[in-house]
Hints:
Elements: E1 10-16, E2 21-27, E3 40-42, E4 53-58, E5 79-83, E6 87-100, E7 127-135, E8 142-155
Parallel strand pairs: 2-3, 4-7
Antiparallel strand pairs: 1-2, 1-5, 3-4, 5-6, 6-8, 7-8
Amino acid sequence: PSTKATRTRPYAVLSIPRLHLRVPVAEGVARRGVLDQGWVGHYPRTQQPGEAGNVGLAGHRNTHGEPFRRLDRLGAGDVVRIETRAAVHTYAVDRVLPRTTPGDGGVLAPVPRSGVVPGYGYTTPGHYLTLTTCTPQFTSTYRLVVWAKLVSVRGR
Length: 156
């Protein structure tokens, strides 16, 4: 028996019909174990799909499968689904923050709100989804943030 930590495995599937995207979601945002596999990573200390608060997900925009390459094409009303063994959680894109700093932790708070760009985010509790990726393309200088609100949960 190995004493090494168990390798991260996907536990959900993210689908964004507008982008023709369907990609595994794994716990954590480490490059080596998650993002460089071409998967989307779930930020530690953010909620799980369907829970009150904010579900935070990250993905590469360029290289390693680049699941979030076209994230900048999303706009209000676009559908984002997270499928787990228990349910399909459907979110609708509500707001986009085109550019913020990599350290803008407010975007991942339970009530997500930028601490860098005034006026972006929310002020009341809810069921939110935050998608983050690097911007502009081929750099890691800034972060693009897409926010969505939970609109339905369908059990399996």
